[in-house]
Every structure is written in structure tokens, then in C-alpha cells.
Design brief:
The protein is an alpha/beta fold. It has helices spanning 13-24, 31-41, 44-54, 61-75, 88-101, 115-123, 163-187, 199-219, and strands at residues 3-6, 27-30, 79-82, 107-112, 125-127, 134-136, 190-194. It has a 5-stranded parallel β-sheet, with helices on both faces. It has a two-stranded antiparallel ribbon with strand order 5-6. α1 (13-24) runs parallel beside α8 (199-219) and α6 (115-123) crosses α7 (163-187). It starts with a strand and ends with a helix. The protein binds zinc ion. Zinc ion (ZN) is lined by residues 128, 130-131, 133, 148, 150-151, 153. Zinc ion binds at residues 128, 130-131, 133, 148, 150-151, 153.
Length: 220
């Protein structure tokens, strides 16, 4: 199976991607994780990408394409791709790669939540600056309010996670994804999953769909 997964901030797509990966033995490819890894490794490409991010610029498509496509090339299919493609140029690069290698996408899945829910989930997030443990004021509060359970230091909120920033990230997501979703709708492989509710509830909406696709693939 080959899957694309999309969702606005707080949709839970990475949590569900990891479950899908475990259940069906697929490769999880997250463009965001790859970019962060490359930056922390301090490679030439990583330094270049870090520069774009630090100045608030978008990383050019050609850079993101070469990073993601070279990763896909290594495994030759059976992947779940998270956070890519995000632009028309990226769609084109992915389509070319798939065509050249005779790989087909089975499903393009978008886990959608409302803007209010996105803000609720993300803006409650608190992080321990010392050990990196992630809490949520409502869904995963620490034992002592505002303090890390492990180290006892004061928890902080990432500047990216403040509610006005989350609203902007949400709007940007919807705007950027519109033409891309239209493209995959035309191909007849786009599926929208209702992301409201608990992780388990959402998972029960995803699993039957993938079980079906998986059974079709096995008998093919
Ligand atoms: Zn801590």
C-alpha cells in the first residue's frame, strides 16, 4: 500500500501514521521529521534548510523534492508519506517518481478538524525545556500544574503553538492544500476522515478503510 496523509495542525496525523506503519508494516516518511533531522545533523543541505527556516522563508521545492524523493527511492513503495506534497511543484515531482517506478497511490487521506479544535489541541500544549516531555493543559496535564513530572522545571509554550499563530497555520494549510486536494479528488483516491473526537474514535474510522484497501492489494 502507498498512502499520502494530510491534516491541519493538531489533526493527529502523525499518531495515526505511526499506528498504520506498525499494523501494516509500512515505511513512515515524514517530510517535517526529515527536515528536522537533516538540520540537526548539520549537513550542507541541513544548514541550507535551517537558513530558510530561520529567516522565515519557505524551503524551495527543489530542495524538499530531492530530500523526499531520494528517501522514497530507497524503499521502492509501501510507504505512508506525511506532509508532502504541499505545492504543485511537489505534486509534479512525486507524480514523475511514481510513474517512472510503476508505483500507484492507493489513497490520499486527509484527517480534518475544525479551526477551533486545532487551536484547542495545539494551544494547550506545554513542553518541558529540559527533557522535552510534552503535556497538554486539558488532555495530559502534569501532576503539579505548570511543572514537569520528570524534572520539576517550569513548562513552556512553543511560540509556534500560541493560539493566534495556530490560527494562521490552520488558514495557511487550508489555502495551500485546496488545489492539491482537488487534484487527488479528480484521480478518485481522496478520502476525508473526520478527525474530531478521541484518538481511538478517529482510528476506528481509518482502520476499516485501510483493511479494505489492504485486502484488495493482497489478492491483486
Ligand atoms: Zn522535564
Amino acid at each position: 500500500m502507498n498512502i499520502l496523509i494530510f491534516g491541519p495542525p493538531g489533526s493527529g496525523k502523525s499518531t495515526h501514521s505511526r499506528r498504520i506503519t506498525e499494523l501494516y508494516g509500512m515505511t513512515y516518511v515524514s517530510s517535517g521529521d526529515m527536515i528536522r533531522e537533516e538540520i540537526s545533523r548539520g549537513s550542507e543541505l541541513g544548514r541550507e534548510m535551517g537558513h530558510y527556516l530561520a529567516t522565515g522563508e519557505l524551503i524551495p521545492d527543489v530542495v524538499v523534492n530531492s530530500l523526499v524523493i531520494s528517501r522514497l527511492r530507497r524503499d521502492r513503495g509501501n510507504f505512508i508519506l506525511d506532509g508532502y506534497p504541499r505545492t504543485a511543484e511537489q505534486v509534479l515531482a512525486l507524480e514523475n517518481y511514481l510513474y517512472d517506478h510503476g508505483i500507484t497511490l492507493n489513497v490520499v487521506m486527509e484527517i480534518l478538524i475544525s479551526k477551533e479544535e486545532s487551536v484547542r489541541r495545539i494551544s494547550g500544549r506545554r513542553i518541558c525545556p529540559k527533557c522535552g516531555e510534552v503535556y497538554h493543559t486539558k488532555y495530559r496535564p502534569p501532576r503539579v500544574s505548570g511543572k514537569c513530572d520528570v524534572c520539576g522545571v517550569a513548562l513552556v509554550q512553543r511560540s509556534d503553538d500560541r493560539s493566534n499563530v495556530v490560527e494562521k497555520r490552520y488558514d495557511l494549510y487550508i489555502r495551500n492544500m485546496e488545489p492539491i486536494i482537488k487534484f487527488y479528488k479528480k484521480q478518485g483516491i481522496y478520502v476525508r476522515i473526520d478527525g474530531q473526537g478521541g484518538i481511538h474514535e478517529v482510528w476506528e474510522r481509518i482502520r476499516p478503510l485501510l483493511d479494505y484497501i489492504h485486502s484488495q492489494e493482497v489478492t491483486r
